Amino acid sequence: MFTPINIKEELIKEKKKRISSVSELIVEANQIIEQDFLHEKRIKQAVKNTTGELSFINETKLKSDHVFSELDIKTICVNYRLRFLDSHFYKEELPYDVLVKVKEFEKEFDCSLTNFKVVAPKSKFNLKDPNADPLLFIPLSNGKYYLIASWGNDMAWYKKFIYFPLRNFQTLFITVLSFCLLVAFLLPFDLTVLKRIYISLHAFIFSFGVITFIGMSFGVNLSSTDWKNKFIN
Q1: pTM score over 0.85
Q2: Of 107, 136, 184, 221, which has fewest CB within 10 angstroms of its CB?
Q3: Cα–Cα dist 82/204, whole Å
Q4: Nearest to residue 223, comparing CAs of 161, 147, 152, 169?
Q5: What is the layout of strands, in order, in the sheet containing 117-121?
């Protein structure tokens, strides 16, 4: 019972305890890292292979300022020449901070998301034909969409004005007519108002015809019909 203590043996015992404790921590840390890696891998696969199925989540706990109707999304897409498509058309890798937000969302709502939508410029998608900030959504059961994350750079303020003519037929009509009227009334000739209007109308008919022909030839569609288009043209 009261045997002498061998300091060397005690030292060896303490060393084994420490090594065992450190080994357990390393194993636990490796398991956490592996689980996190597998979680990210599953999310990436879900984004690239969207199922179209709704995720079962408690929608009453969602942040209301992140819930948008399809009309809200359509308006933004039309104004800024963007597309709203299934995430498997998105050709770039999601940034790490977006994956983190998806993981946090799944952990908070105890779910596995399988259906994603992305708002981005046409150039960001792999479309069905041999510089903005994308938005990642999930569909909700009420027909609306929940914004999970956004990334990239903010869109330049002037893009809304540049893309105004291509929003829909009405904005194209207004833009061409306004331009023709402006040019007609700036002509440095001594013309009556009626003659200037006459010139502007003829210029409008000619310009609108040329624009329509060019648009059809090069496959330039109006944003109101293009925002959910899965094809390049």
Answers
A1: no
A2: 107
A3: 28
A4: 169
A5: 67-68, 145-150, 135-139, 117-121, 82-86
Cα(71)–Cα(77) distance, rounded to whole angstroms? 10
Beta strands of the chain (E only): which ranges? 67-68, 82-86, 117-121, 135-139, 145-150
CA distance 68 to 32: 35
Three-state secondary structure along 184-224? HHHCCCCCCHHHHHHHHHHHHHHHHHHHHHHHHHHCCCCHH
Give the amino acid at 160. K
DSSP state of 5: P
pLDDT by residue for the chain (233 residues), tens only, comes to 566 666 656 676 776 666 666 566 676 666 677 777 778 888 888 788 776 677 778 888 888 999 999 999 999 999 888 999 988 888 888 888 888 899 999 888 888 888 899 998 888 887 554 345 789 998 988 889 999 988 877 777 788 888 888 888 888 888 888 888 888 777 777 777 777 777 778 787 878 777 776 766 666 778 887 777 766 55
